[in-house]
Fold this protein.
Amino acid sequence: MKEYLKAAVEQAKMSLKEGGIPIGSVIVYDGKIIGRGHNRRVQDGSAILHAEMAALENAGRLSANVYKQCTLYTTLSPCSMCSGAIILYKIPRVIIGENKTFMGEEELLRLKGVRVEVLQDEVCISLMRNFIKDNPKLWNEDIGL
């Protein structure tokens, strides 16, 4: 499990280096990462490319049976949009790096039968705390405030 969260953190750091928001995600199927993504709203001028959405996009078009056997790892609690995609594709398990800096739709995910685990990983927390402190306007834009 730790190696997959580490891969998501690498994605988050990549976004930060590119001038974006440090959130990363990976999708794991049968012990292999099949999709990687990081928040690309700033870099691409996108309204929707959060890390989870980018990971789904990078996984490519897959059958519903594949998604139903995946685990999604994300450095930050998923927002409404990303949680909706998780529910839509019936991804059964989500591992979250942290939810101290932002609480997404974890209860909705659980209500829809998704197994949610929050790790409160110090690296994930530190990445977001520092980013929010240094970029409050951009952070508020990203979460729709």
Summary: The longest helix spans residues 2-17. The radius of gyration is 14 Å.
